[in-house]
């Protein structure tokens, strides 16, 4: 068996679709929508990153995500509602560990869309893509242990906690804990069919 990330996914940006959502490539014109998320205290609460103060900061983040795809280091999707094309969030494999055929997933959503199952819908699709198209062996999520909603979402999608690091991350003047969750390709054999 070939244990290697499938670089063919970097030839043409993979657009994904679910019953209610479209997952498409970020464009620089999406900076305003990204800014709405990354400047919202409710979204930022557990991201442990500084909020964006200007739309330009969000534009720079988008440029970084586009560059990451071009350099084959990550894939990030903006999430739109299919019926209205409204931007509601983002999700992506933002860090890849090629020699371990593993990628770290991250996501965020506008608060007005929380609790409606949208992120679970997007996450299931991106997991499916990760194992069936990207040929990952495992997917990792690094979560603030106080973020109960994100942990619940990950567990619903089959992730298991594999590590807990005490005060391993320094942010905003204090040391924070990290919880690492992972999903193995073999854990999904009943849900997804490997091509």
What features would you highlight for this structure?
195 residues; 5 helices; globular; alpha+beta; eight-stranded mixed beta sheet; Aminopeptidase
What does this protein structure show overall?
The protein is an alpha+beta fold. It has one domain: Aminopeptidase (3-Layer(aba) Sandwich). 27% of the residues lie in helices and 32% in strands. The chain contains 5 helices and 8 strands; from the N terminus they run ββαααβββαβαββ. The chain has helices spanning 31-38, 41-44, 55-70, 118-132, 148-156; strands at residues 16-17, 21-25, 75-81, 87-97, 102-109, 138-143, 160-171, 174-184. An 8-stranded mixed β-sheet has the order 1-2-3-4-5-6-8-7, sandwiched between helices. Helix 1 (31-38) packs across helix 3. The longest helix has 16 residues, at 55-70. It is globular, with a radius of gyration of 16 Å. 25% of the residues are buried.
Cα(first) to Cα(last) distance is 12 Å
CATH fold topology: Aminopeptidase
Identify the CATH architecture. 3-Layer(aba) Sandwich
Helix content estimate: 25-40%
The total of helices stands at 5
Strand and helix order: EEHHHEEEHEHEE
Structural class given helices, strands, pairing? alpha+beta
- Quickly name the level 1 CATH class: Alpha Beta
In round numbers, the mean pLDDT is: 94
What number of domains? Answer: 1
In summary, what is this structure?
The protein has 195 residues and is α+β, with helices and mostly antiparallel strands. The protein has helices spanning 31-38, 41-44, 55-70, 118-132, 148-156, and strands spanning 16-17, 21-25, 75-81, 87-97, 102-109, 138-143, 160-171, 174-184. The chain has one domain: Gcn5-related N-acetyltransferase (GNAT) (Aminopeptidase, 3-Layer(aba) Sandwich), CATH 3.40.630.30.
